[in-house]
Amino acid sequence: EVEDDVKEALVQFMEKLSPGNALRDQNWGWNTSSDPCDDNWAGVSCDTRNQSVRKITLDGFNLTGSLDAGSVCSVKSLVVLSLNDNVIGGNLAEEISDCKHLTHFYLSANQFSGNLPDTLSQLSNLKRLFISNNNFSGKLPDLARISGLLTFFAENNQLSGSIPEFDFSNLLGFNVSNNNFSGPVPDVKGKFGVESVSGNPGLCGKPLSNACPPPPPPSTEKKSKHSSNDRFLIFSGYIILALLVLLLIAWKVFGKNKHKNKKTGDVKKKQVAMEVETRRNKPTSGASSGIKSTRENKSEYSLSSAESGMNASSLVVLTSPVVTGLKFEDLLRAPAELLGRGKYGSLYMVTLDNGVVLAVKRLKDWGISSEDFKRRMQKVDLVKHPNVLSPLAYYCSNQEKLLVYPYQPNGSLFEFLHGSQNGQSFDWGSRLHVAASVAKALAFIHEELRESGIAHGNLKSSNILFNKNMDPCISEYGLMVVNEIQDNSIVAQKNSYESNNIIGQIYSTFKVDVYGFGVILLELLTGKLVQNNGLNLATWVNSVVREEWTVEVFDKALLSEAASEERMVNLLQVALKCINTSPNERPNMDQVAGMINTIKEEEERSVSSVE
Ligand SMILES: Nc1ncnc2c1ncn2[C@@H]1O[C@H](COP(=O)(O)OP(=O)(O)OP(=O)(O)O)[C@@H](O)[C@H]1O
């Protein structure tokens, strides 16, 4: 029997859909005295194994009321909601996001109006979304973040704003014609014709025949004055610099005042260095716990000494419009807060004058030449993926290497799993989504950078950050060089993940990432820390599995939400393959992504199997 509260919620939902019972047929069921599954309520399909309501299909039932999302979404097992061809009006309420397992959502040919709620984009399992032939208006929520979406039909509404950058390579069906969308049509990868976007007067670009106007010149008159001023300043800077260098050479050649000069120069530069130091080293609570103090390595941060040659690049090399015009000096001048000091450097949160917040990574003794560093960063910058955080800019000289990233305020996977919430509200579906997205992104970037031999090198849950849409992004890609990496599995074998004095064998750096990813999977599955009271997670999981106590490894939160044990075991098997002590035995990321995708699809199928 279906539980009473589910029954009541369904009846309430129907009351709102068909107000006053006027049009309701007695034979439909939909009353609390009968059972939706046993008594075959009209339009309801159940999973016979556990008597749960999976599908509601009320197409063409002449329903004239409104959609009570709050009620229907309290039926947690619901995967299909189909209400096409009725006369349902009103808004789509934001509670629709509670229909977490919804894969198919059909509202076409009704009289819905108003904005679509932003929360619609939280339906991360959605495959098919049909809202055509309604009166929806306003901007679309960021539906592009629903990575598994296969069809989106929204024609004949009054929707406006720009068309989201869907993953068109994945979309099977797409139509937004006859709305008020504007701006350039995103690259539909040649998959959809003009009919899917026509009837939007403000749209331009392919596949439409009207090309988009060229972007306005970057500066107004005032601005161009400004930028020519800037240019003038830069040129004067160069000239002054050249003069200084000439002067220096002259002094050296004539051997006059050499000693004295050097001293004053150093003193000045040291002042700068000190300023940077004091600002940067502002202690932050908890930031240094468990992280080695680098105070004794103060010279690492000094801008004096060899830097005085000033022949190295002294400007931040820009790779993104977000920080156009940003200079190295701006970074130094801006208020900075130390976020952490890891093995490979320190991370600062820097707030620029214009309010842009950056995360600046200051790399520690990286034995890489400036040229190699530049080349490397340029290659990394070429590879863009929505789940990979690209650096905005970088700075390098022989002494100093900085990486500038956009600051991600939503925390890291590490914090999600092990922070104050302890992963309690991080359900199985979301964990599987994170695993699949990260695997897919890593497989992509590995493939793109395989020839260059650039892997992540330091993959771990604190380097998986959630962006503003709460999508996981791999950060700090490529900041470790192949031959500096030890294979973590060797370290793990010795039961000491952190210990880096063991001379590990150097393997294909890509397989080191696979290992790191495997450990992330273990964290997702167990909710446990990688290193806990001297116990290494990989070692512990291996030993528990060997003893055939597999279920013991899983996070209690997952077990209590009744996540599919079979699929958790499948994911665990992928993890164990990834952390194989022999790198050659590990799958590559492409295979890993494929395996996880299969598990995700099984999960979706099981959730939507309603027959
Ligand atoms: N772009 C960012 N935006 C917001 N927080 C970030 C960003 N990059 C890193 N963080 C967070 O800041 C903290 C410190 O980062 P840092 O990279 O120094 O630490 P780590 O990853 O533990 O060390 P390392 O990478 O040196 O091994 C981490 O909690 C990390 O999740």
From TrEMBL:
Taxonomic classification: Eukaryota, Viridiplantae, Streptophyta, Embryophyta, Tracheophyta
Record keyword ATP-binding present: yes
PANTHER family reported for this sequence: OS05G0588300 PROTEIN, OS09G0376600 PROTEIN
One Gene Ontology CC term in the entry: membrane
Record-given protein name: Protein kinase domain-containing protein
List of residues binding ATP: 361
MF terms (GO), sorted A to Z: ATP binding; protein kinase activity
Pfam families referenced in this protein's UniProt entry, alphabetically: LRR_1, LRRNT_2, Pkinase
Region (Disordered): 205-226, 260-303
InterPro entries, per database record: At_inactive_RLKs, Kinase-like_dom_sf, Leu-rich_rpt, LRR_dom_sf, LRR_N_plant-typ, Prot_kinase_dom, Protein_kinase_ATP_BS
Compartments it resides in: Membrane
